[in-house]
Amino acid sequence: MSPLPPFEQDTGCPPPGRHAMTWDEVEASLVLADRFGSSAVRGALWEELQAHRAMVELLAGRPASRVWLAGSFVSSKLDPSDIDVTYLLEAEAYGAISEQDDLADLANLEDREWCFRNQMRIDAYVLSLPATQDFRSLGVTGAMATGDAEVFQRLGLYDEIWQRCRVGNGRRRGYVEVSQ
After folding, report:
1. What one-character-per-residue DSSP string does 63-100 give?
2. Sign of CA dihedral 102, 68, 116, 58
3. What is the DSSP string of 40-57?
4. Which residues pair with 122 in a beta bridge?
5. Which of 114, 141, 143, 150 is spaced 20 to 30 Å from 39 by Cα?
6. Contact criterion met (CB below 8 Å) for 24 and 4
7. Predicted pLDDT of residue 165
8. CA separation for the pair 30, 22 (Å, rounded)
9. Which residues contact 160 (CB under 8 A, 6 or more apart)?
10. Are 73 and 4 in contact (CB under 8 A)?
């Protein structure tokens, strides 16, 4: 893994792409870095993310395979208002969340207003990874696991959303991927 590339001057965001990092590298780059030493919120946001992540992973029964972090938290903004996060769960773990209480709890963790009311400034999404493991089979009719076409579309949608930049005249931005 490598540290987050420098923020682009005109957008305040990382260069376009998905940047692989460890949790320790994310904390070092986006919370503990000297440039954020005077932030009034980054440390608290980090703690809120860790609590939120623990709850999602408890409901899933295992760690998220990958986590995408984006938005103003993954920018040069000194005091971001929240953290945008997408949890990517193995298809088996995602499909195993079936108890009504667990589904309701997961829905709450994906509800921005619920999170804010519960002192977590988190804008979260939980997605399944494809069940298809052998990617040589993707082009073969009927070889893809049932439902994977929709899974790939949702993953592509969020990948596109996280790379959109609010500033910079149509510029794209990067975001972070943390793998377990």
Report:
1. --SEEEEEGGGGSS-SS-S-EEEEEEE-HHHHHH---H
2. positive
3. SSHHHHHHHHHHHHHHHH
4. 83
5. 114
6. no
7. 75
8. 12
9. none
10. no
Instruction: Kindly report, residue by residue over 76-112, the tens digit of the pLDDT.
Output: 999 999 999 999 999 999 888 888 888 899 999 999 9
Q: Which two tokens stand for residue 176?
A: 């972070």
Beta bridge partners of 124: 85
Which residue's entry shows tokens 């972070």?
A: 176
Long-range CB pairs of 13-16, under 8 A, 24+ apart, other chains included? 13/74, 13/75, 13/76, 13/165, 13/168, 13/171, 13/173, 13/174, 14/74, 14/75, 14/173, 14/174, 14/175, 14/176, 15/173, 15/174, 16/163, 16/171, 16/172, 16/173, 16/174
Mean pLDDT for 33-62 is 96
Q: How many CB atoms lie within 10 A of CB 14?
A: 22
C-alpha 145/C-alpha 90 separation (Å) is 13
Quote the pLDDT of residue 143.
67
CA proximity to 3, closest of 25, 32, 36:
25
Residue percentage of the chain with pLDDT more than 90 = 62
